[in-house]
Every structure is written in C-alpha cells, then in structure tokens.
Amino acid sequence: MARGSDRGNRALVPSASRALDQFKYEIANELGLGPQIADGDWGDIPSRLNGKVGGQMVRRMIELAERQMASGTGGGSIGGGGGTSGSF
C-alpha cells in the first residue's frame, strides 16, 4: 500500500462534504442517473458512469476556479449553471 493512501476520498474542508454530495447528485441527475440513485444506492451504477459524474464535477469546479481567478474574486459555490449549487 502506498504511503498516504489510507486518507481516502475525504473533503479537505469537512463542512464542504454536504455541498459536494449535493453537487454529485445534481450532476448525476443531469446525466440521467437520477431515478437509478434516488435512494442513494450507487451499487448498481457501472464504474464508467460513476467516472462520468466525477469527471463532470471536476470540470465544473475547474471552470468555477478559472472564472474566479479571471474576475479576481475568491470563494464561491460549486455548480456551473442552473440548478442547485452548494457553497464550499
């Protein structure tokens, strides 16, 4: 096992966990996975689709950071356009 691998996928800012979880479900709904994960069970979702959700989350967070850097603002919320956004 590699050094540091015991950390897992945890939010660096614990208070952001709820916003990230909400953001994950928002992206999943946009990708058409809403009915499959309505009960919070991701067990039947293929890893390829899980990867799409994560990839879209990362893309949107990068876009947000780029916009904030370009405008000189800090902080902000997750989410690209439309829908519910949680704040980080």
In short:
The chain is 44% helix and 0% strand. It is built from 2 helices and no strands. It is globular.
Fill in the keyword field for this structure.
88 residues; mainly alpha; globular; disordered C terminus
N→C terminal distance: 31 Å
Percent of residues in helices = 40-55%
Content-based structural category: mainly alpha
Task: Please count the beta strands (DSSP E, at least 2 residues each).
Answer: 0
SSE topology string? HH
Overall morphology: globular
Q: Which sheet architecture does the biggest sheet show?
A: none
Low-confidence stretches: 82-88
| Helical segment count | 2
Average pLDDT: 79
* Beta-strand proportion: under 5%
* Spatial extent as radius of gyration: 14 Å
Describe the overall structure.
The protein is mainly alpha-helical. The protein has a domain at 14-36 and 45-69. Helix content is 44%, strand content 0%. It contains two helices and no strands. The protein has helices spanning 17-30, 47-71. The chain is globular. The protein starts with 16 loop residues before the first helix and ends in a 17-residue tail after the last helix.
